[in-house]
């Protein structure tokens, strides 16, 4: 079975995707004008082309993650999600697949990783640069994940909750498709917590459409959704939060 056939078999409700040149597509060709500058950038082929090498390193430096580096981030993600076997893994808002491919490489046997994103240019890059025998890509909306409840052993969503229109609906979906015992990891923004810095944070958010989360906003939602082992690490303006579904 090819990776795309494997992915098609995971789709819920008999949804029938199109093959868009290496990834499966469940959305109409045009999803409307991006509402914010940040969303527009993610639909731009030039940004998709430079994302992994240039755009993300600059973005992580701005968030205060400078020096961490993609390799260390990839290793930390694999470790946090406990990837070492035959797990099914979902990478939501995968961009050009910069984490998804690493997940596929960490898996064995029937292990398989799905990268999901709305942006055609990002997915075209993912297919081109970050494919693999245990990896496949899907165009779908994170607010309406096309998978059954509990379909995945591990789920990640990195560097995206701050630009999607309804981040808490996305978190609900991440938790819904996670199997009991499965692990979830997200990377998103975190306010500095200092009163005076709220003004530049708010201005930056208003100009770009990026949302700054209060420090407890994401962990509170994880607690409310019944997740356990909730761990948060704040570095600069970024937070990495992981948890397990009981
Ligand atoms: C900054 S990139 C993150 C890529 C990768 N996860 C990383 O950490 O480098 C954010 C991605 O979120 C995607 N995205 C935005 N809104 C989305 C939605 N509603 N559903 C799925 N993906 C979305 C964008 O297309 C973009 O590729």
TrEMBL record:
<keyword id="KW-0808">Transferase</keyword>
<dbReference type="GO" id="GO:0008168">
    <property type="term" value="F:methyltransferase activity"/>
</dbReference>
<dbReference type="GO" id="GO:0032259">
    <property type="term" value="P:methylation"/>
</dbReference>
<feature type="domain" description="Methyltransferase type 11">
    <location>
        <begin position="90"/>
        <end position="185"/>
    </location>
</feature>
<dbReference type="InterPro" id="IPR029063">
    <property type="entry name" value="SAM-dependent_MTases_sf"/>
</dbReference>
<protein>
    <submittedName>
        <fullName>Class I SAM-dependent methyltransferase</fullName>
    </submittedName>
</protein>
<keyword id="KW-0489">Methyltransferase</keyword>
<dbReference type="InterPro" id="IPR013216">
    <property type="entry name" value="Methyltransf_11"/>
</dbReference>
<dbReference type="Pfam" id="PF08241">
    <property type="entry name" value="Methyltransf_11"/>
</dbReference>
């Amino acid at each position: 079975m090819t990776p795309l056939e494997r992915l098609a078999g995971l789709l819920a409700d008999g949804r029938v995707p199109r093959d868009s040149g290496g990834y499966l597509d469940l959305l109409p060709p045009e999803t409307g004008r991006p509402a914010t500058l940040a969303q527009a950038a993610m639909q731009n082929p030039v940004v998709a082309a430079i994302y992994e090498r240039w755009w993300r390193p600059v973005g992580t430096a701005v968030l205060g993650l400078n020096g961490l580096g993609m390799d260390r981030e990839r290793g930390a993600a694999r470790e946090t999600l406990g990837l070492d076997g035959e797990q099914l893994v979902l990478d939501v808002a995968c961009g050009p697949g910069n984490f998804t491919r690493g997940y596929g490489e960490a898996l064995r046997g029937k292990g398989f990783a799905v990268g999901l994103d709305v942006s055609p240019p990002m997915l075209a890059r993912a297919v081109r640069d970050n494919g693999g025998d245990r990896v496949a890509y899907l165009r779908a909306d994170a607010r309406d994940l096309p998978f059954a409840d509990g379909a995945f052993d591990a789920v990640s969503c990195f560097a995206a909750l701050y630009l999607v229109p309804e981040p808490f609906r996305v978190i609900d979906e991440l938790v819904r498709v996670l199997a009991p015992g499965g692990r979830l990891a997200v990377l998103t923004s975190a306010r500095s917590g200092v009163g005076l810095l709220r003004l530049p944070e708010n201005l930056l958010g208003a100009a770009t459409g990026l949302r700054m989360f209060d420090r407890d906003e994401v962990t509170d939602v994880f607690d409310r959704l019944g997740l356990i082992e909730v761990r948060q690490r704040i570095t600069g303006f970024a937070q990495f939060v992981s948890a397990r579904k009981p």
